[in-house]
Specification:
The complex is a heterodimer of chains A (112) and B (111). With 112 residues, chain A is mainly β. In chain A, 0% of the residues lie in helices and 52% in strands. The radius of gyration of chain A is 13 Å and the shape is globular. In chain B, the strands form 2 sheets. Chain B has a 5-stranded mixed β-sheet with strand order 1-9-8-3-4, with no helix packed on it. In chain B, strands 2-7-6-5 form a 4-stranded antiparallel β-sheet, with no helix packed on it. In chain B, a hairpin with a 4-residue loop joins strand 5 and strand 6. Chain B contains no helices and 9 strands. Chain B is mainly beta and 111 residues long. Chain B is globular and about 40 Å long. The relative contact order of chain B is 0.35. Classes of the chains: A mainly beta (112), B mainly beta (111). The interface between A and B is medium-sized, with 29 and 22 residues.
Chain lengths: 112, 111
């Protein structure tokens, strides 16, 4: 148990729809990152939030956006879903400067 | 972050030591070696990290060569629950940057 939870566990959406995934971090973890993991591949960095501001972004288009809230929860929003967005979405949290990131169990998104 | 190279898969007998290699020949002086693992359908889990000295914790040992161009993660007594994908990652300590995952090594512990 890492103390990081994600919801929902599984989700099925249709191409073109929008989706919101949620993550609840450990208390005190002011940095949260989101990763996308396609089947058979390692996780790929989407973006990172520190104290409610985005401070790093991977090679993902603007239709991937996020929010971080003062209560250590965060959201990943994806607009105009494409079939290739089907993946496991992971959030990871840590305190600023910490060497260890704590990952949640992920949300499995299927786009049909 | 320096690039890492790992074998795609390895097998290990239950109860034996599992030795997982990682090459990171372009590692720079301020970069640490981190190991994470991911059990099927779960999020990655931190195992251990080190700079140049060998490190040990309750999960594993990390052996880094003197030139720091390669390392080995050792699970001293592998169990079936250690079956997972193991990722070797190189990055500065406490870096605000993200973890860059490669393809990792699929370790299968056999009964």
């Amino acid at each position: 148990e890492t103390g990081v939870t994600q919801s929902p566990t599984h989700l099925i959406k249709t191409r073109g729809q929008q989706v919101t995934l949620r993550c609840s971090s450990q208390s005190g973890h002011n940095t949260v990152s989101w990763y996308q993991q396609a089947l058979g591949q390692g996780p790929q960095f989407i973006f990172q939030y520190y104290r409610e501001e985005e401070n790093g972004r991977g090679n993902f288009p603007p239709r991937f956006s996020g929010l971080q809230f003062p209560n250590y929860s965060s959201e990943l929003n994806v607009n105009a879903l494409e079939l290739d967005d089907s993946a496991l979405y992971l959030c990871a949290s840590r305190t600023d400067g910490a060497y260890e990131q704590y990952f949640g169990p992920g949300t499995r998104l299927t786009v049909t | 972050d320096a690039k890492t190279t790992q074998p795609p898969s390895m097998d290990c007998a239950e109860g034996r030591a599992a030795n997982l290699p990682c090459n990171h020949s372009t590692i720079s002086g301020n970069e640490y070696v981190y190991w994470y693992r991911q059990i099927h359908s779960q999020g990655p889990q931190y195992i251990i990290h080190g700079l140049k000295n060998n490190e040990t914790n309750e999960m594993a040992s990390l052996i880094i060569t003197e030139d720091r161009k390669s390392s080995t993660l050792i699970l001293p007594h592998a169990t079936l629950r250690d079956t997972a994908v193991y990722y070797c990652i190189v990055r500065p300590l406490g870096s605000a940057r993200q973890l860059t995952f490669g393809s990792g090594t699929q370790l299968t512990v056999l009964p």
